[in-house]
Design a protein that fits this description.
150 residues; 2 strands; 3% strand; mainly alpha; 53% helix
């Protein structure tokens, strides 16, 4: 039987952008994934997973997660979610292979987050540059505005 680290890598290889599709519009899931990397997850698997050779992929994935240690309240606090909501989102992220039992996050989730952040920065800076541009007028530059009495 392979070592759990080797087994985990076999799941990491399954990462795809389709899994990260669920992040679109789900800020709770996005915040959970960001928090997952910050809370100090510990993964302490045995040297081998008992009966791992006869398990389905789903059973093996769950067996790998049995050795994950984290503080649910820290996860909730870091993600801005209630403990129950954070656990629901963690289960979803696990099922989509967006987070790993060793505290890491899938490459597709990281790429999605980076793209979203860059997009938000671009949008914010575009808004700033537009607000600092002079407003259009019908006057030539440096021509004082003339008001006629009515």
């Amino acid at each position: 039987m392979a070592h759990p680290s080797t087994l985990l890598r076999s799941f990491i290889v399954k990462d795809s952008i389709e899994n990260a599709h669920s992040l679109i519009g789900d800020d709770s899931l996005l915040n959970l994934i960001l928090a997952w990397r910050r809370i100090g997850v510990k993964w302490d698997p045995p040297n081998e997973i008992k009966n791992g050779a006869t398990m389905s992929d789903n059973e093996l994935w769950n067996a790998l997660w049995e050795h994950t240690i984290y503080n649910a309240e820290d996860l909730a606090s870091a993600s801005g979610l209630s403990v129950i909501r954070a656990q629901q989102k963690l289960l979803m992220a696990r099922q989509l292979y967006l987070v790993y039992p060793d505290g890491d996050v899938s490459e597709s989730a990281i790429q999605f987050i980076q793209t979203k952040v860059v997009g938000e920065i671009h949008k914010a800076t575009k808004g700033l540059s537009q607000s600092s541009e002079p407003k259009e007028t019908n006057q030539a530059p440096d021509t004082p505005e003339i008001k006629f009495p009515q």
